[in-house]
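Repro:
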Amino acid sequence: MDVTASLLERLATLPDPRSKQGQRYPLPAVLGLAVLAMLAGMTSLEAIAQFGRLWGPRLPPLLGFKSGKTPSKATLSRAFRGVGAGPVEAALAAWVRGRCPDDRWRHLTLDGKALRGSKDGEVPGIHLLTAYAPEVAAVVGQLRVDKKTNEHKAALQLLGVLPLEGKVVTADAMFTHRDVCQAVCGGGGDYLLPVKDNQPQLRADIESAFAVPTALSPPAEAPARADLRLRPAGQQGARPA
C-alpha cells in the first residue's frame, strides 16, 4: 500500500460514471470538496455547495477545479448518485490505513451505529458498521448496513477486506457466530467475543468446560470441635485453663 498517497490521489482512483460530454468538474475535486466541507461541519448538499462558494477563488485550484468555481447543489447530487457510497468508503479507508500501518495496531473492534440526524420522517436512518483500531484512534473500515441485511452479514463483508493477520477482533454478543469466528481465523487473526443468554446452549457448554469437577474440589474445612478434655469431678462446668 502506498502510504504517501494523498486523499485526493486516493479519490482519483475511483471510476467516473458520468458522461464525458459537458463535464465541468473533475470527480476527485468534487469528492474532495465534500470531504473538506463535511469535516468543517457541513451536513447537506446545500451547505457543501455554499461552503465552496464562501471560500472564494482560493479554494478551487487547491482541490483541482480547473474552472476556478465549485459545483452547485444539483451538480453535487448528480455526482454522488453516480459514484455511490461504497467506492468512496473504500478509498477513504485505504487512505486512513496508509497512515496507520498494520504493525502499529493489533486490536480491531466492530460496532454498528445509526448515523445521527440521518432519519427523515418515514425514511429510516443510515446504519453503519465500523471497524475501529483503538491503538491508532482510527476507523480502518466502514460499511453501510442495508435495510435488507443486518450487522452480522455486513460484518462478514467487512472482515473480508480488512487486514486481520495477527489482529485480535472484539465485538458485542451480536457478532458471536460461527461464520464470523471462521472469517477472523481465516484471515490470520483471533477473536474475543462474549456469550450471553441469547445462546443458552453455547453458554452452558462454556460454563461446563470451566466448572471445577466435584471430585477435585478441596474438602470442606471441619467445624471447630468443643474441648472434650476430661476434667476432675466437680470442675466439669469450669473453663479450661
